[in-house]
Amino acid sequence: MFQKKERITSDRFKEIIDLNRTFHADLLYARFGENNLDYSRFSVVVPKKVEKLSIKRHFLKRKINASLKELKGQFKKGDYLVFAKESIKGKLFKDINASVEDLSKRANV
């Protein structure tokens, strides 16, 4: 889990959803909002449509969080809502890591 300052609040979450700047990768997509901070903030969402059981949703969320923590320096400064796609089911950590890396490249363009 990210430190409290690196997490997005619920009010900011709604603002970013409304901005509708989206970047896609094969397993994930992210919505982006600019911020005036010296660091990036992240929030991970795994919808019920992707995985019905909460245990499996949280497991996927932990995998994505770990990958984001590893690669957060590659992202442009801002707020990111990272959503899992249905294709993420059954993927290994290295696949998720590659997808996060691809997402960071797309966000920096």
What would you say this structure looks like, in words?
- It is a single chain.
- With 109 residues, this protein is of the alpha+beta class.
- It has a single domain, classed as Ribosomal Protein S5, domain 2 (2-Layer Sandwich).
- The longest helix has 18 residues.
- α2 packs across α3.
- β1 and β2 form a beta hairpin.
- The mean pLDDT is 92.
- The radius of gyration is 13 Å and the shape is globular.
- It has 3 helices and 4 strands.
- Helices cover 39% and strands 18% of the residues.
Main sheet properties: 4 strands, mixed
Note the gap between the termini.
Answer: 27 Å
Stretches where pLDDT is under 50 for at least 5 consecutive residues are: none
> Mean pLDDT, nearest integer?
92
Strand content: 15-25%
Here the CATH topology equals Ribosomal Protein S5, domain 2
3D shape: globular
Task: List the SSEs and their pairings.
Blueprint: H1 10-19, E1 22-24, E2 28-33, E3 41-45, H2 54-71, E4 79-84, H3 93-107
Parallel strand pairs: 3-4
Antiparallel strand pairs: 1-2, 2-4
Helix pairs in contact: 2-3
